[in-house]
Design brief:
This protein is mostly beta strands. The protein contains 5 helices and 39 strands. It is 13% helix and 34% strand. A hairpin with a 2-residue loop joins strand 10 and strand 11.
Length: 503
Protein backbone atom coordinates (compact mmCIF):
# COMPACT_ATOMS: atom_id res chain seq x y z
CA UNK A 1 0.00 0.00 0.00
CA UNK A 2 1.57 3.31 -1.11
CA UNK A 3 0.51 6.75 0.15
CA UNK A 4 1.92 10.13 1.12
CA UNK A 5 4.39 8.91 3.77
CA UNK A 6 7.82 10.28 2.85
CA UNK A 7 10.77 8.01 2.20
CA UNK A 8 13.54 8.06 4.84
CA UNK A 9 11.18 9.06 7.62
CA UNK A 10 12.88 10.89 10.49
CA UNK A 11 12.26 8.67 13.53
CA UNK A 12 12.87 11.48 16.00
CA UNK A 13 10.79 14.37 14.64
CA UNK A 14 8.46 12.84 12.01
CA UNK A 15 6.73 10.51 14.45
CA UNK A 16 4.72 11.33 17.56
CA UNK A 17 3.72 9.64 20.76
CA UNK A 18 4.15 5.91 20.78
CA UNK A 19 2.95 3.10 22.97
CA UNK A 20 3.83 -0.33 24.34
CA UNK A 21 7.58 -0.03 23.77
CA UNK A 22 10.34 -1.49 25.94
CA UNK A 23 13.49 0.17 27.27
CA UNK A 24 16.76 -1.41 28.38
CA UNK A 25 19.27 0.62 30.38
CA UNK A 26 23.05 0.49 30.63
CA UNK A 27 24.44 3.24 32.86
CA UNK A 28 22.89 6.53 31.72
CA UNK A 29 22.15 5.26 28.20
CA UNK A 30 18.68 4.01 27.25
CA UNK A 31 17.78 1.64 24.41
CA UNK A 32 14.15 1.80 23.22
CA UNK A 33 12.53 -0.80 20.98
CA UNK A 34 9.15 -2.21 19.99
CA UNK A 35 5.59 -1.00 20.25
CA UNK A 36 4.17 1.47 17.79
CA UNK A 37 4.39 5.18 16.97
CA UNK A 38 1.98 7.70 15.48
CA UNK A 39 2.52 9.64 12.29
CA UNK A 40 1.63 13.31 12.39
CA UNK A 41 -1.67 12.55 10.66
CA UNK A 42 -2.62 10.18 13.47
CA UNK A 43 -1.97 6.85 11.73
CA UNK A 44 -0.18 4.15 13.70
CA UNK A 45 2.82 2.21 12.40
CA UNK A 46 5.05 -0.38 14.02
CA UNK A 47 8.25 0.89 15.55
CA UNK A 48 10.87 -0.58 13.22
CA UNK A 49 13.93 0.97 14.85
CA UNK A 50 16.18 0.73 17.86
CA UNK A 51 16.55 4.18 19.40
CA UNK A 52 19.58 4.90 21.58
CA UNK A 53 19.27 7.83 24.01
CA UNK A 54 22.61 8.94 25.42
CA UNK A 55 21.85 10.91 28.59
CA UNK A 56 25.38 10.85 30.00
CA UNK A 57 25.99 14.60 29.57
CA UNK A 58 24.19 17.79 30.61
CA UNK A 59 21.73 19.11 28.05
CA UNK A 60 18.92 21.65 27.64
CA UNK A 61 16.09 20.07 25.66
CA UNK A 62 14.80 23.51 24.68
CA UNK A 63 17.91 24.13 22.58
CA UNK A 64 18.95 20.58 21.61
CA UNK A 65 17.51 17.11 21.93
CA UNK A 66 18.28 15.60 18.53
CA UNK A 67 21.93 14.99 19.50
CA UNK A 68 20.73 12.58 22.21
CA UNK A 69 19.44 10.11 19.64
CA UNK A 70 21.10 7.44 17.54
CA UNK A 71 18.62 5.44 15.47
CA UNK A 72 19.21 2.03 13.82
CA UNK A 73 16.64 0.27 11.66
CA UNK A 74 15.93 -3.27 12.78
CA UNK A 75 16.87 -6.09 10.40
CA UNK A 76 13.94 -8.01 8.93
CA UNK A 77 14.94 -11.00 11.06
CA UNK A 78 14.06 -9.12 14.26
CA UNK A 79 10.36 -9.23 15.25
CA UNK A 80 8.37 -6.05 15.86
CA UNK A 81 6.82 -6.75 19.23
CA UNK A 82 4.96 -5.07 22.07
CA UNK A 83 4.47 -5.99 25.74
CA UNK A 84 7.73 -7.93 25.72
CA UNK A 85 10.93 -7.67 27.75
CA UNK A 86 14.25 -5.99 26.97
CA UNK A 87 17.27 -6.28 29.32
CA UNK A 88 20.93 -5.28 29.23
CA UNK A 89 23.69 -7.65 30.31
CA UNK A 90 27.46 -7.33 29.74
CA UNK A 91 27.34 -5.00 26.73
CA UNK A 92 24.47 -6.91 25.15
CA UNK A 93 20.72 -6.38 24.98
CA UNK A 94 18.26 -9.28 25.11
CA UNK A 95 14.75 -9.10 23.58
CA UNK A 96 12.08 -11.73 24.21
CA UNK A 97 8.43 -12.32 25.00
CA UNK A 98 5.37 -10.25 24.13
CA UNK A 99 3.34 -10.42 20.93
CA UNK A 100 3.72 -9.00 17.45
CA UNK A 101 2.47 -5.46 16.94
CA UNK A 102 -0.69 -5.18 14.90
CA UNK A 103 0.42 -2.06 13.01
CA UNK A 104 1.98 -2.13 9.52
CA UNK A 105 5.74 -1.83 9.04
CA UNK A 106 7.10 1.29 7.36
CA UNK A 107 9.51 0.45 4.56
CA UNK A 108 12.39 2.67 3.52
CA UNK A 109 10.73 3.59 0.23
CA UNK A 110 7.72 5.10 2.01
CA UNK A 111 5.35 2.12 1.71
CA UNK A 112 3.55 0.20 4.43
CA UNK A 113 3.91 -3.56 4.68
CA UNK A 114 1.21 -5.84 6.05
CA UNK A 115 3.02 -9.06 5.16
CA UNK A 116 3.49 -11.84 7.76
CA UNK A 117 6.49 -11.40 10.05
CA UNK A 118 9.02 -13.32 12.05
CA UNK A 119 7.32 -15.72 14.46
CA UNK A 120 8.22 -15.32 18.13
CA UNK A 121 7.80 -18.94 19.28
CA UNK A 122 9.87 -18.61 22.43
CA UNK A 123 12.78 -16.89 20.74
CA UNK A 124 15.38 -14.56 22.22
CA UNK A 125 17.21 -11.95 20.12
CA UNK A 126 20.49 -10.39 21.24
CA UNK A 127 22.02 -7.07 20.21
CA UNK A 128 25.74 -6.41 20.67
CA UNK A 129 26.16 -2.80 21.83
CA UNK A 130 29.82 -2.57 20.76
CA UNK A 131 29.45 -4.01 17.24
CA UNK A 132 25.89 -2.75 16.56
CA UNK A 133 24.91 -6.21 15.33
CA UNK A 134 22.11 -8.62 16.12
CA UNK A 135 22.95 -12.26 16.83
CA UNK A 136 20.99 -15.14 15.39
CA UNK A 137 17.81 -16.09 17.20
CA UNK A 138 18.23 -18.36 20.22
CA UNK A 139 15.86 -20.16 22.58
CA UNK A 140 14.64 -18.02 25.50
CA UNK A 141 13.68 -21.05 27.58
CA UNK A 142 10.10 -19.81 27.86
CA UNK A 143 8.63 -22.30 25.43
CA UNK A 144 6.50 -21.61 22.36
CA UNK A 145 3.99 -19.48 24.29
CA UNK A 146 5.84 -16.33 25.28
CA UNK A 147 5.09 -14.18 28.30
CA UNK A 148 4.06 -10.57 27.90
CA UNK A 149 2.70 -7.69 30.02
CA UNK A 150 4.90 -8.88 32.90
CA UNK A 151 6.03 -6.56 35.68
CA UNK A 152 9.79 -6.02 35.27
CA UNK A 153 12.61 -4.83 37.52
CA UNK A 154 16.33 -4.48 36.91
CA UNK A 155 19.50 -4.24 39.00
CA UNK A 156 21.79 -1.90 37.05
CA UNK A 157 24.92 -2.78 39.01
CA UNK A 158 24.35 -6.52 39.13
CA UNK A 159 23.03 -6.56 35.55
CA UNK A 160 20.23 -8.95 36.40
CA UNK A 161 16.50 -8.56 35.86
CA UNK A 162 13.31 -10.12 37.19
CA UNK A 163 9.85 -10.59 35.72
CA UNK A 164 6.66 -11.48 37.52
CA UNK A 165 3.32 -12.51 36.13
CA UNK A 166 2.10 -11.32 32.79
CA UNK A 167 0.31 -13.66 30.45
CA UNK A 168 0.72 -16.35 27.84
CA UNK A 169 -1.22 -15.74 24.67
CA UNK A 170 -3.48 -18.68 23.85
CA UNK A 171 -3.83 -17.64 20.21
CA UNK A 172 -1.05 -16.33 18.02
CA UNK A 173 -1.15 -12.65 17.20
CA UNK A 174 -0.18 -12.26 13.56
CA UNK A 175 -0.23 -9.61 10.91
CA UNK A 176 -1.20 -10.74 7.43
CA UNK A 177 -3.52 -13.54 8.58
CA UNK A 178 -7.05 -13.71 9.94
CA UNK A 179 -5.82 -13.91 13.54
CA UNK A 180 -5.61 -10.36 14.83
CA UNK A 181 -5.33 -8.77 18.26
CA UNK A 182 -9.03 -8.55 19.05
CA UNK A 183 -9.28 -12.35 18.91
CA UNK A 184 -6.32 -12.90 21.18
CA UNK A 185 -6.94 -14.02 24.77
CA UNK A 186 -4.39 -14.38 27.53
CA UNK A 187 -3.80 -16.91 30.29
CA UNK A 188 -2.29 -15.20 33.30
CA UNK A 189 0.90 -16.39 34.94
CA UNK A 190 1.85 -16.59 38.61
CA UNK A 191 5.54 -17.10 38.03
CA UNK A 192 8.74 -15.32 38.95
CA UNK A 193 11.39 -15.28 36.23
CA UNK A 194 15.01 -14.16 36.27
CA UNK A 195 17.15 -12.99 33.36
CA UNK A 196 19.69 -13.81 32.33
CA UNK A 197 20.40 -17.37 33.36
CA UNK A 198 23.79 -17.83 31.70
CA UNK A 199 25.03 -21.38 31.16
CA UNK A 200 27.74 -20.56 28.64
CA UNK A 201 29.47 -17.76 26.79
CA UNK A 202 26.45 -17.19 24.55
CA UNK A 203 23.74 -19.35 26.06
CA UNK A 204 21.49 -16.76 27.73
CA UNK A 205 18.06 -17.91 28.86
CA UNK A 206 15.16 -16.79 31.00
CA UNK A 207 15.11 -18.83 34.21
CA UNK A 208 12.10 -19.68 36.34
CA UNK A 209 12.42 -19.06 40.08
CA UNK A 210 10.71 -21.32 42.61
CA UNK A 211 9.37 -18.46 44.71
CA UNK A 212 7.59 -19.07 48.01
CA UNK A 213 4.08 -17.69 48.65
CA UNK A 214 3.39 -16.87 44.97
CA UNK A 215 -0.22 -17.95 45.47
CA UNK A 216 -0.73 -15.00 47.83
CA UNK A 217 0.26 -12.65 45.03
CA UNK A 218 -1.76 -14.21 42.23
CA UNK A 219 -1.58 -13.01 38.66
CA UNK A 220 -0.40 -9.57 37.63
CA UNK A 221 -0.94 -8.02 34.21
CA UNK A 222 0.50 -4.59 33.29
CA UNK A 223 1.70 -4.03 36.85
CA UNK A 224 4.96 -2.46 38.04
CA UNK A 225 7.95 -3.76 39.94
CA UNK A 226 11.15 -2.12 41.24
CA UNK A 227 14.42 -3.43 42.66
CA UNK A 228 15.77 -1.94 45.91
CA UNK A 229 19.38 -2.84 46.81
CA UNK A 230 21.13 -3.16 50.18
CA UNK A 231 18.14 -4.47 52.12
CA UNK A 232 16.63 -7.91 52.59
CA UNK A 233 18.22 -11.19 53.63
CA UNK A 234 22.03 -11.07 53.31
CA UNK A 235 21.60 -7.59 51.78
CA UNK A 236 20.68 -9.16 48.43
CA UNK A 237 17.88 -6.67 47.81
CA UNK A 238 14.12 -6.81 47.51
CA UNK A 239 11.49 -6.35 44.79
CA UNK A 240 8.29 -4.37 45.29
CA UNK A 241 5.32 -5.32 43.08
CA UNK A 242 2.27 -3.06 42.80
CA UNK A 243 -0.62 -2.02 40.57
CA UNK A 244 -1.84 -3.70 37.41
CA UNK A 245 -4.75 -6.08 36.94
CA UNK A 246 -5.79 -8.98 39.11
CA UNK A 247 -6.01 -12.56 37.94
CA UNK A 248 -8.96 -13.81 35.96
CA UNK A 249 -9.77 -16.52 33.47
CA UNK A 250 -9.44 -15.76 29.76
CA UNK A 251 -9.06 -12.02 30.29
CA UNK A 252 -9.22 -10.00 27.08
CA UNK A 253 -5.95 -8.23 26.28
CA UNK A 254 -7.49 -4.77 26.49
CA UNK A 255 -9.71 -5.34 29.55
CA UNK A 256 -9.07 -2.87 32.37
CA UNK A 257 -11.43 -4.26 35.01
CA UNK A 258 -10.22 -5.86 38.25
CA UNK A 259 -7.50 -3.31 38.90
CA UNK A 260 -5.36 -3.77 42.00
CA UNK A 261 -5.63 -1.27 44.83
CA UNK A 262 -2.52 0.54 46.07
CA UNK A 263 -3.63 0.03 49.68
CA UNK A 264 -1.27 -2.93 49.79
CA UNK A 265 1.86 -4.01 47.89
CA UNK A 266 3.89 -7.20 47.57
CA UNK A 267 7.50 -7.48 48.69
CA UNK A 268 9.85 -10.20 47.40
CA UNK A 269 12.92 -11.06 49.46
CA UNK A 270 15.56 -12.11 46.92
CA UNK A 271 17.71 -13.83 49.57
CA UNK A 272 14.98 -16.26 50.62
CA UNK A 273 12.94 -16.17 47.38
CA UNK A 274 9.79 -15.41 49.38
CA UNK A 275 6.82 -13.10 48.76
CA UNK A 276 5.22 -11.02 51.53
CA UNK A 277 2.14 -8.78 51.55
CA UNK A 278 2.29 -5.38 53.26
CA UNK A 279 -0.61 -2.93 53.73
CA UNK A 280 0.13 0.74 53.04
CA UNK A 281 -1.14 4.04 54.41
CA UNK A 282 -1.49 7.41 52.69
CA UNK A 283 -1.09 11.02 53.72
CA UNK A 284 -4.58 12.46 54.14
CA UNK A 285 -5.83 8.97 53.23
CA UNK A 286 -5.21 9.94 49.57
CA UNK A 287 -4.11 6.80 47.73
CA UNK A 288 -3.28 6.65 44.02
CA UNK A 289 -6.24 5.50 41.94
CA UNK A 290 -5.86 1.90 40.71
CA UNK A 291 -4.25 1.83 37.27
CA UNK A 292 -2.44 -0.15 34.59
CA UNK A 293 0.39 0.82 32.23
CA UNK A 294 1.98 3.22 34.72
CA UNK A 295 5.74 3.47 35.21
CA UNK A 296 7.91 3.43 38.33
CA UNK A 297 11.41 4.35 39.46
CA UNK A 298 12.99 4.24 42.92
CA UNK A 299 15.46 6.56 44.65
CA UNK A 300 16.99 6.07 48.11
CA UNK A 301 18.14 8.59 50.71
CA UNK A 302 21.91 8.81 50.92
CA UNK A 303 21.89 7.24 54.41
CA UNK A 304 19.48 4.49 53.39
CA UNK A 305 16.83 5.54 55.90
CA UNK A 306 14.16 5.72 53.20
CA UNK A 307 13.63 4.14 49.79
CA UNK A 308 11.16 6.14 47.72
CA UNK A 309 9.17 4.62 44.89
CA UNK A 310 7.75 7.07 42.32
CA UNK A 311 4.58 6.03 40.46
CA UNK A 312 3.61 8.00 37.35
CA UNK A 313 0.75 7.98 34.85
CA UNK A 314 -1.31 5.10 33.48
CA UNK A 315 -4.92 4.13 32.72
CA UNK A 316 -7.49 4.16 35.49
CA UNK A 317 -10.52 1.87 35.77
CA UNK A 318 -12.56 4.05 33.39
CA UNK A 319 -9.82 4.15 30.76
CA UNK A 320 -8.94 7.75 31.66
CA UNK A 321 -5.27 8.68 31.21
CA UNK A 322 -3.90 9.93 34.52
CA UNK A 323 -0.93 12.25 35.02
CA UNK A 324 -0.30 12.35 38.75
CA UNK A 325 2.84 11.28 40.58
CA UNK A 326 2.77 9.51 43.94
CA UNK A 327 5.66 8.48 46.18
CA UNK A 328 5.56 5.31 48.27
CA UNK A 329 8.21 5.67 50.96
CA UNK A 330 9.67 2.53 52.50
CA UNK A 331 10.00 1.16 55.14
CA UNK A 332 7.06 3.25 56.39
CA UNK A 333 5.00 2.04 53.40
CA UNK A 334 3.31 5.43 53.30
CA UNK A 335 2.03 7.24 50.18
CA UNK A 336 2.62 10.96 49.61
CA UNK A 337 1.47 12.98 46.58
CA UNK A 338 4.55 14.07 44.67
CA UNK A 339 3.66 16.28 41.71
CA UNK A 340 2.97 19.67 43.34
CA UNK A 341 -0.42 19.67 41.66
CA UNK A 342 1.07 19.78 38.12
CA UNK A 343 -0.27 16.74 36.31
CA UNK A 344 1.06 15.50 32.97
CA UNK A 345 -1.26 12.72 31.69
CA UNK A 346 0.59 9.85 30.03
CA UNK A 347 0.06 6.15 29.30
CA UNK A 348 2.09 3.54 27.44
CA UNK A 349 5.27 5.42 28.31
CA UNK A 350 8.53 4.15 29.78
CA UNK A 351 10.51 5.54 32.71
CA UNK A 352 14.11 5.22 33.82
CA UNK A 353 16.25 6.90 36.46
CA UNK A 354 19.50 8.58 35.36
CA UNK A 355 22.15 10.43 37.34
CA UNK A 356 20.49 9.33 40.58
CA UNK A 357 17.90 12.16 40.58
CA UNK A 358 16.12 12.39 37.21
CA UNK A 359 13.22 10.34 35.93
CA UNK A 360 13.39 10.15 32.13
CA UNK A 361 10.03 9.55 30.46
CA UNK A 362 10.07 8.36 26.85
CA UNK A 363 7.13 8.54 24.43
CA UNK A 364 3.67 7.39 25.51
CA UNK A 365 0.24 8.85 24.71
CA UNK A 366 -1.32 11.92 26.30
CA UNK A 367 -5.00 12.64 26.89
CA UNK A 368 -5.33 15.28 24.18
CA UNK A 369 -6.39 13.51 20.99
CA UNK A 370 -6.06 16.76 19.07
CA UNK A 371 -2.37 16.94 19.93
CA UNK A 372 -0.84 13.46 19.88
CA UNK A 373 2.61 14.78 19.09
CA UNK A 374 5.12 15.17 21.91
CA UNK A 375 8.05 17.54 22.29
CA UNK A 376 11.77 16.87 22.35
CA UNK A 377 11.59 13.59 20.44
CA UNK A 378 9.32 12.16 23.11
CA UNK A 379 11.68 12.86 26.04
CA UNK A 380 10.50 14.43 29.30
CA UNK A 381 12.49 14.97 32.50
CA UNK A 382 11.22 14.98 36.07
CA UNK A 383 13.49 16.05 38.95
CA UNK A 384 12.93 13.52 41.74
CA UNK A 385 14.26 15.93 44.37
CA UNK A 386 12.44 19.14 43.47
CA UNK A 387 9.32 17.33 42.16
CA UNK A 388 9.27 19.51 39.05
CA UNK A 389 9.17 18.85 35.32
CA UNK A 390 12.21 20.37 33.65
CA UNK A 391 13.85 20.68 30.23
CA UNK A 392 17.36 20.75 31.70
CA UNK A 393 19.45 17.71 32.54
CA UNK A 394 22.16 19.04 34.83
CA UNK A 395 24.91 16.47 35.38
CA UNK A 396 26.91 17.27 38.51
CA UNK A 397 29.44 15.45 40.61
CA UNK A 398 28.43 14.09 44.00
CA UNK A 399 30.46 16.84 45.69
CA UNK A 400 28.36 19.40 43.81
CA UNK A 401 25.14 17.99 45.30
CA UNK A 402 24.43 16.05 42.16
CA UNK A 403 22.92 13.13 44.07
CA UNK A 404 19.29 12.52 44.91
CA UNK A 405 17.90 14.39 47.89
CA UNK A 406 14.67 13.46 49.63
CA UNK A 407 12.03 16.04 48.59
CA UNK A 408 10.96 18.50 51.27
CA UNK A 409 7.32 17.50 50.71
CA UNK A 410 8.30 13.96 51.65
CA UNK A 411 10.67 14.48 54.58
CA UNK A 412 8.10 16.73 56.24
CA UNK A 413 6.06 13.54 56.55
CA UNK A 414 8.67 10.84 57.20
CA UNK A 415 11.05 13.07 59.19
CA UNK A 416 14.69 13.89 58.67
CA UNK A 417 16.08 16.03 55.87
CA UNK A 418 17.21 15.91 52.26
CA UNK A 419 20.04 13.50 53.06
CA UNK A 420 17.83 11.14 55.06
CA UNK A 421 17.57 10.60 58.80
CA UNK A 422 13.94 9.54 58.40
CA UNK A 423 12.27 8.57 61.69
CA UNK A 424 8.96 7.30 60.31
CA UNK A 425 10.47 3.90 59.49
CA UNK A 426 7.83 1.41 60.61
CA UNK A 427 4.31 1.23 59.10
CA UNK A 428 1.64 2.86 61.24
CA UNK A 429 -0.15 -0.45 61.75
CA UNK A 430 3.08 -2.42 61.92
CA UNK A 431 4.59 -4.93 59.54
CA UNK A 432 2.23 -7.71 58.57
CA UNK A 433 5.08 -10.20 58.83
CA UNK A 434 7.99 -9.92 61.26
CA UNK A 435 10.38 -10.94 58.47
CA UNK A 436 9.76 -7.56 56.84
CA UNK A 437 11.07 -5.83 59.95
CA UNK A 438 14.21 -7.97 59.71
CA UNK A 439 14.59 -7.33 55.98
CA UNK A 440 14.88 -3.59 56.55
CA UNK A 441 17.47 -4.15 59.31
CA UNK A 442 15.70 -1.73 61.63
CA UNK A 443 17.38 -0.92 64.94
CA UNK A 444 15.80 -0.52 68.36
CA UNK A 445 16.40 3.23 68.06
CA UNK A 446 14.32 3.38 64.88
CA UNK A 447 11.47 1.56 66.59
CA UNK A 448 11.52 3.95 69.53
CA UNK A 449 11.58 6.98 67.22
CA UNK A 450 8.68 5.61 65.21
CA UNK A 451 6.75 5.15 68.44
CA UNK A 452 6.72 8.92 68.84
CA UNK A 453 5.97 9.60 65.17
CA UNK A 454 3.05 7.20 64.77
CA UNK A 455 1.52 7.57 68.26
CA UNK A 456 2.13 4.08 69.51
CA UNK A 457 4.52 1.27 68.86
CA UNK A 458 3.66 -0.73 65.76
CA UNK A 459 1.73 -3.88 66.63
CA UNK A 460 3.95 -6.17 64.60
CA UNK A 461 7.06 -4.80 66.23
CA UNK A 462 5.55 -5.12 69.73
CA UNK A 463 4.68 -8.73 69.00
CA UNK A 464 8.21 -9.43 67.85
CA UNK A 465 9.75 -7.80 70.92
CA UNK A 466 7.37 -9.55 73.31
CA UNK A 467 8.02 -12.95 71.73
CA UNK A 468 11.77 -12.43 71.73
CA UNK A 469 11.78 -11.14 75.33
CA UNK A 470 9.58 -13.97 76.53
CA UNK A 471 11.80 -16.58 74.92
CA UNK A 472 14.87 -15.01 76.52
CA UNK A 473 13.29 -15.10 79.99
CA UNK A 474 12.28 -18.75 79.56
CA UNK A 475 15.83 -19.67 78.62
CA UNK A 476 17.25 -17.79 81.64
CA UNK A 477 14.76 -19.53 83.94
CA UNK A 478 15.67 -22.98 82.66
CA UNK A 479 19.37 -22.33 82.95
CA UNK A 480 18.95 -20.96 86.51
CA UNK A 481 16.81 -23.89 87.64
CA UNK A 482 19.19 -26.55 86.36
CA UNK A 483 22.56 -25.04 87.14
CA UNK A 484 22.09 -22.70 90.12
CA UNK A 485 22.42 -25.45 92.83
CA UNK A 486 25.55 -26.73 91.15
CA UNK A 487 27.10 -23.25 91.05
CA UNK A 488 26.28 -22.57 94.71
CA UNK A 489 27.83 -25.85 95.71
CA UNK A 490 31.02 -25.01 93.81
CA UNK A 491 31.21 -21.63 95.53
CA UNK A 492 30.76 -23.19 98.98
CA UNK A 493 33.46 -25.78 98.35
CA UNK A 494 35.85 -23.04 97.23
CA UNK A 495 35.30 -21.11 100.46
CA UNK A 496 35.89 -24.11 102.80
CA UNK A 497 39.38 -24.45 104.45
CA UNK A 498 41.58 -27.08 102.80
CA UNK A 499 42.15 -30.23 104.90
CA UNK A 500 45.47 -32.14 105.00
CA UNK A 501 45.00 -35.82 104.30
CA UNK A 502 46.62 -38.14 106.93
CA UNK A 503 49.12 -40.64 105.63
Amino acid sequence: MTDSIPANLNWVDDVCGGNLRMVAQSGNILYAIGGYVNLRDGREIANSHLQILDLSQSIDLESDYVSLFTVHRLPDTIPRICWGSFFAHKKKLHLFGGVQTGQPIYERNGTLSYSPRVELEGGLWTYDIETNKWDARSDSGLGINTAGQSARAYDLEGEVGWLYGGGVWTERYRVGTEQQGEKTSVRELEEMMRVPEVSGAKDVKVGRVQAQNSSTVGGSLQGNMVFIPDVGTEWKGILVLLGGRKEGESVNVHMRAMLRSFESVFVYDIGTQTWFTQPTTAEGNSFPVPRTEACTVVASASDGSSHNLYLYGGHDRDGRIVGDIYILSLPSFHWVKGDKGVENPKVGHTCAKVHDKYMVVHRGINDNTASLCDRYGGIELFDLSTLEWTAKLNVQSESEKGRYEVPEELYKVIGGNGQGEANFTVPKAGFKDYHLYQMFNLSADSIATTTTSSKGLAAGVIAGIVIASGAFLVIISIVSFKFLPYLLDKINNRNRPQQTQLQ
